[in-house]
Amino acid sequence: MSREVIITTGSRLHWGLLSLSPQVGREFGGIGLMIQEPQLKLSVTQSTGSTDTVKGSPGSITKIREALAAVRNECPQLYRDQFYDLVLHSEIPQHCGFGSGTQLSLAVAQALASMAEEPSLTSVELAQRVQRGARSALGIHGFTAGGFLVEGGKQSTDEISPLVVRADFPEDWQILLVTPTNRTGISGYIEADAIQQLGAMPLATTEKLCRLALMQLAPAVQTHDFEEFASGLTEFGHVVGEFFRPAQGGIFADPQMAELEKKLRSRGIRGIAQTSWGPTLSIICQDVEMVASLVRECGYGEFCELRTARPLNEGAQIQINQI
């Protein structure tokens, strides 16, 4: 009998870096959250031919083939002469701030390891096989751990930033994702160029972001203090957004999302932050239907996709079927 491996994982919200180009200390770092939706589901079986077959959207097919090549390059003795049929049953939207590239690459690496019956690999080992973690490692750690995450930053270019805080996110806190349909976030070489042009983050900014992350947001998650978390996340988003203003044109990458944030704050809504380079705005709330109704009332339902999501407090699911 042969086997089928099915990997299911969620998306990653990245609310901002803690440091950039420091004279001393670690670089990057950051805070974020794994969520159940949008969801990725990948199935892999052994191919009967002498080539891989991949089914999915064009962009995802390219990333899957890149991940396959990277794994074979890292472990030629295990995978060089093995070929697979890979089917992407559900995908995480690309360039929206959901960390789709990392989750897809790690899913491929984990699926192949399970097909080869390798011993359990850590998320860092999986990431090294597919060359992820050049800057952020939130999605790497989130792939196997889920939850609310704080990473500590890199001391060297080849290091994967260590996880310093991981906590279950309260299940009764809901998440609304607002994504403009006419704009995408930046990534890859464009992202790297934008970061390089920003220069060093002021030490005072890093200190403020670290205080918010470690002395307000993380404790609020662990004590289920919604008001403390919501106010802290809004402040964190503004502080980090102000630093990235020259690269993205404002505190938020999309001017329409900036206007929406102002309108929601005027209605008393907090817990709002851009994820990664946007354009998606994430809103942590206790009544997601009420907040979604406000977003539509403000006129954003016509040109934005609204998604509701739940926290993902566990790692990727690995299902192995004998076929």
Low-confidence stretches: none
Number of strands: 11
Beta-strand fraction estimate: 15-25%
How many helical stretches? 10
Give the overall pLDDT as a whole number: 95
What's the CATH architecture of the largest domain?
2-Layer Sandwich
- Percentage of helical residues? 25-40%
Note the overall shape.
globular
Biggest sheet details: 7 strands, mixed
Report the end-to-end length measured between terminal Cα atoms: 6 Å
Please state the oligomeric state of the protein chains shown: single chain
Description of the structure:
The chain has 323 residues and is an alpha+beta fold. The protein has 2 domains: 3-168 and 312-322, 2-Layer Sandwich (Ribosomal Protein S5, domain 2), CATH 3.30.230.10; 174-309, GHMP kinase, C-terminal domain (Alpha-Beta Plaits, 2-Layer Sandwich). The chain contains 10 helices and 11 strands. The strands form 2 sheets. Strands 1, 2, 3, 4, 5, 6 and 11 form a 7-stranded mixed β-sheet that branches. A 4-stranded antiparallel β-sheet has the order 8-9-7-10. Helix 7 (203-223) runs antiparallel to helix 8 (226-248). The longest helix is centred in the C-terminal third of the chain and has 23 residues, at 226-248. It starts with a strand and ends with a strand.
